[in-house]
Known about the structure:
The chain has helices at residues 2-6, 9-24, 41-52, 97-103, and strands at 34-39, 57-63, 77-81, 107-108. It is globular, with a radius of gyration of 14 Å. The longest helix has 16 residues, at 9-24. 36% of the residues lie in helices and 18% in strands. The protein contains four helices and four strands.
Amino acid sequence: xxxxxxxxxxxxxxxxxxxxxxxxxxxxxxxxxxxxxxxxxxxxxxxxxxxxxxxxxxxxxxxxxxxxxxxxxxxxxxxxxxxxxxxxxxxxxxxxxxxxxxxxxxxxxx
Length: 110
């Protein structure tokens, strides 16, 4: 939480956008969409990118992380890894809105 609070969201958003642009400029992905792997805060940014750039993001794999945003614009496939029981995770607040929201879409899970 302290890291997230100390982060400049505009600067991080710019980094995510420039990373998408750089990946799309590589020979392997000139016309194809990309996949994003994110852990914790990185997973939150991956969810954000999938909703803001649906024509660029094909898939997101997330380990924890969350976003309390509208996922309707996203066209990506999502795979989320969340513990069923985690003493460090709180079951209230926006962090767990992601698995609940995506479970209504196309979240892959076992």
